[in-house]
Write the structure tokens for this entry.
Amino acid sequence: MTCVLQGVHSVFETDLFRTLIGATEATLHRASDPESSGSYRVIADHLRSTSFLIADGVTPSNEGRGYVLRRIMRRAMRHAHLLGAAEPLMHRLVPTLVAEMGTAYPELRRAEAAIAETLRQEEERFLRTLGRGMALLEEATAGLGEGDTLSGETAFKLYDTYGFPLDLTQDALRARGIAVDLDGFDAAMAAQRAMARENWAGSGERVQGAVWFALRDRFGPTLFEGYEKIDTAAKALALVREGAEVPESVAGETVSVLFDVTPFYGESGGQAGDRGTAIWDGGAAEVIDTQKEAGDIHIHALKIATGTLTPGTSVTLCVDAARRARTRLNHSAAHLVHAALRHVLGPHVAQKGQLVDGDRMRFDFSYSGPLTGAQIDAIETEVNAVIRQNVPAETTEMGPDEAMAAGAIALFGEKYGDKVRVLSLGHSLTGEGAYSVELCGGTHVARTGDIALFKIISEQGVAAGIRRVEALTGEAARRWLLDQAAAARAIADQLKTPVAETPARIEALEAQRRQLERDLAEARRQIAMGGGGVAERPPEDIGGVKFIGRVLQGVGGKDLRPIAETYRKQIGDGVVALSGVADGKVSSTVVVAGAAQDRFNAVDLARAAVSAMGGQGAGGRPDFAQGGAPDPARAQSGVDAVREALTAA
């Protein structure tokens, strides 16, 4: 219909696509022509689809919908490569897309920074993959010539293991007149899919899921009272074990139970499920976990301690209050961390997952590299500043669109109903409004001051472009800091210096250690050289080639190099072979100097020496090579092997 209204013959000629294609042409400084128009169209179409997927919370990965996204992205990136783009292109087109469609689809505006950063990182990764893939392709086709065919299995390995597209393999080989066995490629693809289906079918998730949905249809959603209560009276509606309902559960068994009402939070939104106890007339059980299934029913994993539990039993459910309180601290801290990350690192940072429980807070986010010490300090400073405000947490219910229009951050990948809980924490540190506003159905503190203290204890990468911080709050953070202080005091006592001066003292000791190592290496060199820098024995003459061969006791591999270089200068033109014995091992160093390099290769001679000593392999340059072996008793054999190689030449 748009084509008809705008009087064009293709959807790619309509204004929505024409603007994106024009932006691509301007960025590449190359106009579209009949030969390249297909690539421009692919880029425009795939830019739209990938941007909407990222805005909806999908991230590139090697499985599930993330794998679909990655394939779409890489197809567009391959066409950008075909058009001559040497640098990442697609992220530079995001502003044009947002300007074109952001009004109708505000989620694009909200996620613009995250979309651009994800595309940039993925395209940089693809360009590296492209370089590796081309090298691997060259290696795989080294023995093929015009008219030959690359096996489908090899082409599939390039595609599946290294992410190298089949059509790019075909394009690269077409110019050399080499075909690709497409039937073999398809067979390998089918075999992998069959294996994936077999592995997936082996899980019980589908069977178990059917039970939960059936229970949801019979009993409706679980009434959750956990925002106001930590204990309540409830009735057992159904018991499930191994994917099927059971009529009862007795002491010693573990069973999944659905109650009509519960104060137990079911794991969702990154918050772990509650634990606690269930007590009834004549019986008791430990609630070891709570999960949210079929959208809104809470399934409790009970380990029956005494008595028998049956459907219809009236039960008193009690949440572990101390663990719930610690979980609230960590969950609210996670919201503050999210806001601080966006302030310190930039608005493109997006949450990629979290886990909060009674022990600690784990928060995953998109970022291109490790955080610096200054960045971590800035994040901690902001979070603790908001904690010290000690202002009430505000929770309101409203529609999702209304909430996001008010500035609330939605967690990508989460599903929201007609009404959502919007949590506001703290006052902005730079202006008016709240410090953190997010959609969240979890349990939280009453005031920011309840968190008391926040401390990041680790920061690391967990996937390409994904970082993770782990942190402690409240008493756990205080105890951790006390343990760190105790460790620092113990080190200071050992060094007999004040704690504040410990870093300088350690640095001085480290410098002293390095100097002693240099002095020791020099002493070993002097001893090995006979004390005065002159060899004890003159070089041998082997077929007109000067040769120095020595076994040096107490000299390790790293100390052999300077000794070998000294001998190189003395000999000028010839071969030096040294076997150094230290720490229960033997090392070999071979130097080929001057004109001797025309006849001998140090790597070959070193390999002969190492082999004679019972080792495997050596490496280096034609004039210098090293290797090692496990048996010091065969040190002389290494020197003799080099001597024999010179004699045989």
